[in-house]
Amino acid sequence: MTALNILSGGAAQGLVAGIAPQFKAQAGLDIAGEFGAVGAMADKLRAGTNADVIILTAAIVARLAEEKWVVPDSIADIGLVETAVAVRAGDSLVTVNDAAALRDALLAADAIFVPDIKASTAGIHVAKVLQQLGIAGEVAARLRIFPNGAAAMRQLAETDAIRPIGCTQSTEIISTKGVILSGSLPQGCDLSTMYTAAVTSRAALGKQARNLIDLLIGTDQRAIRARAGFIDAGK
Q: How are beta strands 53-57 and 3-9 bridged, if at all?
């Protein structure tokens, strides 16, 4: 085998890319697999997709452990990821210091780019926030929904909309060229999600899978995690 297979939430794609060269130097393996909405990735594992490692939200990993899809003693938290606002590179940043400012920014946008509002962590949360702010119906026609945050941010970067905005997890914003992190969601609308790794019960490369997890959570990789947008849980 030449690759370790992974199923991961899109939030971790930038981090995995940053770790991949070191992992290949140590294990002699590339990292292959899929990144997408966490619910969809969990369902792929349940459906029999080959994977050695999963990186999903802590809640979903705990559920998969109960269902015997992952090895319990391999479970390890990587860090917290905030849901945040993005703008297209070259556009003015938007101020979202409180719920009123976030409401105004969303209402001012002529296109709102978000991930899957039923299967992705950020998308589900954005849908709740729109309801909370009382503007879900008003902006429904402006929503541009994509399978995951990375896809949504790529489309935000390329859109010809006049006043576009995006909302997904900060890691997906940071890792996408052509968009800029404008700010985290304000208090009361905010969401910080713990992402967790685990070796799958059917892993073909169990030892190497544990090695990858050790790299992802290692103290030596703290700077790489921070650049990717992860917040250490202890902070």
A: parallel
Q: What is the CB neighbour count within 10 angstroms for residue 111?
A: 20
Q: What is the CA radius of gyration of the chain?
A: 18
126 near 84, Cβ under 8 Å? no
Element holding 153 (H helix, E strand): helix 149-158
Q: How does pLDDT run across 23-40, given as a tens digit for each residue? A: 999 999 999 999 988 999
Element (H, E) at 100: helix 99-108
224, HSE (Cβ side, Cα atoms, 13 Å): 19
State pTM to two decimals. Answer: 0.87
**Domains in the chain, please, with CATH?**
3-80+194-228 (3.40.190.10), 81-184 (3.40.190.10)
User: Which uninterrupted H or E stretch holds 26?
Assistant: helix 13-27
Please give the structure tokens belonging to residue 169.
């997890």
Q: Which two tokens stand for residue 133?
A: 């702010």
101-117 pLDDT per residue, tens: 999 999 999 999 999 99
Any idea what DSSP says for residue 180? E
